[in-house]
Amino acid sequence: MACNGMASSSSFPSNFMMQTHRGEENQLGIPVSPLLLANLQDLGGESFPGIETRDEMTADDDLSDDGLPAGEKKKRLNIEQVRTLERNFELGNRLEPERKMQLARVLGLRPRQVAIWFQNRRARWKTKQLEKEYDVLKRQLEATKTENEALQVQNKKLQAEVSLSSMKISSSF
């Protein structure tokens, strides 16, 4: 019996979960794995509503994540674009849609490029902040260790004095 109460005729384990390509679901809201799609296509090439064929799934693989044709080299931002983006980042490290569109227009970039630049810049900023905090904590730790060692030395001296005084007191009786 499968976990849904129906007899299982497949060889998949009961905990097998079918996932969709890129997290998508078909029109029925049922997750479909690429493996299942390949098997469905082998059943006669019949079309199923809401399910991409293998060819449809790979059709946009010719484009990179930023929409450029695969293999096309990304253009670097020029110095003036970077300076403008940096100045805007200093004003606020979050972008409202209207500000993103305005910056994209002024700089001759796509809004997505501006958004990604800000996202990457926030990540670099956060890393720098963590490094600064780490350095402060490291200095505090070293100072605390030094203070602890000094206190331990002082403690031993005091214990020796107490021990010596108690011997003097006991010997005087």
What topology emerges from the helices and strands here?
Elements: H1 34-41, H2 54-59, H3 79-91, H4 97-107, H5 111-172
Helix pairs in contact: 4-5
Concise structural overview:
With 173 residues, the chain is mostly helical. It has five helices and no strands. The N terminus is likely disordered.
Notes on the structure:
The protein has 173 residues and is mainly alpha-helical. The chain has a domain at 79-171: Orthogonal Bundle (Arc Repressor Mutant, subunit A). The chain has helices at residues 34-41, 54-59, 79-91, 97-107, 111-172. GO terms for molecular function: DNA-binding transcription factor activity, RNA polymerase II-specific; sequence-specific DNA binding. It comes from Ensete ventricosum. Its main location: nucleus. Residues 53-75 are annotated as: Disordered.
| Cα-atom radius of gyration | 33 Å
Number of strands: 0
Give the C-level CATH assignment of the domain at 79-171: Mainly Alpha
Q: CATH superfamily assignment of the domain at 79-171?
A: Homeodomain-like
Instruction: Supply the CATH architecture of the domain at 79-171.
Output: Orthogonal Bundle
In which range does the helix fraction lie?
A: 55-70%
Strand content: under 5%
The low-pLDDT segments are 1-10, 15-30, 35-54, 56-61
User: Can you give the mean pLDDT?
Assistant: 74
Provide the structure class. Answer: mainly alpha
Name the shape in a single word: rod-shaped
* String of helices and strands: HHHHH
**Structure annotation, total helices:** 5
Query: Between the first and last Cα atoms, what is the distance in angstroms?
Result: 90 Å
Mind summarizing the main beta sheet?
none
CATH topology of the domain at 79-171: Arc Repressor Mutant, subunit A
Subcellular location: Nucleus
Domain Homeobox: 68-128
Coiled coil: 120-161
GO cellular component, one term: nucleus
